[in-house]
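#dry-run=false #mode=assembly
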Amino acid sequence: MIARLYRIALVAFPRRHRDLYAAEMIDTFERELARRRSTGAGAALAFAAAAFANLVAAGTIERRRRYVVRFGYLFSALDFTLAWRMLLRHPGLSIVSVFGMAVGIAVAAAAFALISMLMDPRLPLPDGDRVVSMLNVDASTSSNEMRLVRDFERWRGLTSVEHIGVARTVSRNLLVEGRSSESVTAVEMSASAFRVARVDALRGRYLLPEDEAPGAAGAMVIGYDEWVRRFNGDPDIVGRSLRLGGDTYEIVGVMPDGFGFPLNNSFWIPWRLDPLA
Amino acid sequence: MRRLTRDPAEFLPLKHSTYQILLALGDGESLHGYAVMQAIADMTQGGETILPGTLYAALARMVDEGLVEESEPRDDGTSGGPPRRYYRRTSFGRAVARAESERLRALLDVARAQNIFGGRK
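#status=ok
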């Protein structure tokens, strides 16, 4: 819980810094918190409070530094030095200020996110505003019609769309060597759907049409979080095998941090359902 | 080339966190962020700590300034956790640490002359 809050509070830092150091910062925070917990709950709580306040303060300074590097000074360094000294000299006021700013930033960010979502909805993908989902509705029952495989095969011939993909989620038991079996939700996705997303793999490759061919070796792409959590960020992850359900898959790629297409997914396997069957 | 032509005195007085990190890194093998944090606590017998926010912001800045450099990751026997960056002190970083140490020593000499420490040497 605390680590999750710490991860959220990392937004105080600029995105570039988060991309480079967020995982290590969270790991460092968790390790030190665990160490302090062993000496007492009070020590852990004091450390957590100090770390959160420090995160906001250091993040603000880092944002300022990045800004100055890119655009030059808007305020003098003295302004920040004096502000920093005031914060140190009056810790009570500092705590109130930090929490006040945190609440203010959170409310403002939520409001902007809501307005942005309502006024300009788009997926967080390159040309995300050009991605649409297609859904059939059964007019007789006014319910969604999910059996779209044959329609998908016909839609593939449309000339008014650039790429078209299809995906469905499946629940399977995942077995990685050296770890216990665990039920996960994977997504069977057509290779063309990766071309819709237009995001390159961080390591290896994403799924290709050849992977969908009957008899092709099982190929799997995994998400960044799973790569870090289950495989400790193994740099030689591509080529490793694991079992999903009753089948063996070879990991062919790792997608970058934050990629969850179509909806917060972390395991992708080829779409192999024959639409003409 | 920039590092060779810069004067260590330009960095004085050094930020406390920068000085802590430069001393923690020493001339030995490279360390990752959490190891730097532990080294600072160890070398001051727990008297001083550095928090992750300050630590990683400082490391990012010090890399930009050429005081430390990233080195190849190595297997340090620890398991779990994300991939880590390892840092080592550059020769320029060492020169800056020396300049700051001399500055502090000059102040310390004044304190000694005024018998600030009482009977202690």
